[in-house]
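help with this record:
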Amino acid sequence: MRNYKDPRVWDEAHKLTLAVYRTTHVFPKEERFGLTSQMRRASASIAANLAEGCGRRSDGEMTRFVQIAMGSGAELSYHLLLARDLGLLKTEDYGDLSTALDRIMKMLSALSGKVRNIAAA
């Protein structure tokens, strides 16, 4: 079993989740079960899937959970855009969160490739 806190990508994903929670805290109450919940769930899902993948026995399973994390990242990317376009998210916050998410997505892609190469060897 891998330690999920070892990869830098998990730490970055955790920081992003904390930032999403702080940012969505000021969203309107009517969004509590809508966009606020969706953004928080998608961001938390990135780090959670990395943790779950590290707890699995095979590199193939780890790769699968990294890909699920990437799907959650893609979902969050859209939610950020939607929140900005609805005027719920300041342009500056959108830029900061999107930049962090882009960095995480690149790290996830690299991690997926590494794990796949190990599994193939």
